[in-house]
Specification:
5-stranded parallel sheet, elongated, Rossmann fold, alpha/beta
């Protein structure tokens, strides 16, 4: 889970930050909060700003809780994609939390990517949540709330990141990447679920929407392996998630949803049955689960297999 630079909070995070600060000032804040959202909306950025507030620092000074050296602040996150947070790391946080604050009036620990806690680490964290040390606060962050143990969720105050107006989001993104065309911003926004930070990262990487390639592969105008070469240079998980968003729209169009307009893709998939499209969506969902897990599948082979099946999606079964 990436943590953007803390120059200022975007508009949709300001109410949540103000609510956390007000609860803290009124002595209504529990020792553990769980910030969650769909991912790419600045979940970790909110944790970053509030952790700094709890130790008496101001995020507007350009500080980052994930990087600042402070004896009363600890930031814990998975070391890389597919990595878990393990029990030794959680025990280290527990030991840190019981120590007497040195500079700030309290100890603060942030666990970003909390869904990656392995079972032993989650159980160890549960003990800290059940008996929180005095003058300590724990901030958990996740973009996969359902993957956390219910017992962990129940012992935290949940703070949901709620998406703002999509038009306002696109305007906000466009202002930060002014060289991108409005058409490309809108197309990539759809593929990235309107998540502004993921969208900005994609625009800065000069990514293009994948719909044209999906159409050409289904029409057998483009070789799957050629596309796998291009797509394999980035995140296979992101490609799969972007791909998944198109199929429900094609199916909706078939069932008379006039608000959906993806005619090129609908035409390319005209010979594919709805049952086949639903089945392929299930393949993508299964691939997403594997890529989000810790089994470390061969992402390139997985991508190649999906693209080969997509090429044949309109053929009789």
């Amino acid at each position: 889970m990436n943590t953007p630079a803390n120059a200022q909070l975007p508009p949709w995070l300001e109410p949540a930050f103000a609510s956390l600060v007000a609860a803290f000032d009124a002595n209504r804040l529990p020792h553990a909060v769980l910030i969650h959202g769909p991912g790419g909306w600045g979940e970790a950025l909110l944790a970053d700003a509030f952790a700094l507030h709890l130790i008496g620092r101001d995020y507007r000074d350009g500080l980052s809780a994930a990087a600042v050296a402070h004896p009363d602040l600890r930031w814990l996150a998975p070391e890389g994609a597919g990595e878990q947070i393990k029990i030794d790391s959680v025990r280290g946080v527990a030991d840190f939390m019981v120590q007497t604050p040195q500079i700030a009036p309290r100890k603060v620990a942030v666990l970003a990517g909390a869904e990656t806690l392995n079972p032993y680490a989650a159980n160890a964290l549960l003990k800290t949540l059940e008996e929180p040390p005095q003058n300590s606060y724990l901030i958990l962050v996740t973009d996969a709330l359902s993957e956390l143990l219910p017992t962990l969720r129940s012992r935290c105050q949940l703070i949901a990141i709620r998406p703002s107006s999509i038009t306002a989001i696109l305007d906000w993104v466009q202002a930060r990447v002014p060289g991108a065309s409005a058409e490309r911003v809108a197309a990539l926004a759809f593929e990235y679920g309107d998540a502004p930070y993921r969208l900005i990262a994609a625009l800065e990487r000069e990514e293009q929407p994948i719909m044209a390639q999906l159409c050409n592969i289904a029409l057998r105008k483009l070789e799957p392996l050629q596309t796998a070469d291009a797509w394999g240079r980035g995140s296979t998980l992101e490609i799969v998630e972007r791909w998944m968003r198109y199929l429900p729209l094609v199916l909706a169009r078939r069932h008379g949803d006039a608000t959906v307009d993806w005619q090129l893709l609908c035409d390319a998939l005209a010979r594919a049955s709805s049952r086949r499209l639903l089945s392929f969506w299930g393949q993508l969902a299964e691939a997403r689960g594997l890529l989000r897990g810790t089994t470390n599948p061969n992402a390139r082979l997985l991508l190649e297999a999906l693209l080969m099946d997509w090429r044949d999606i309109a053929l009789p079964m």
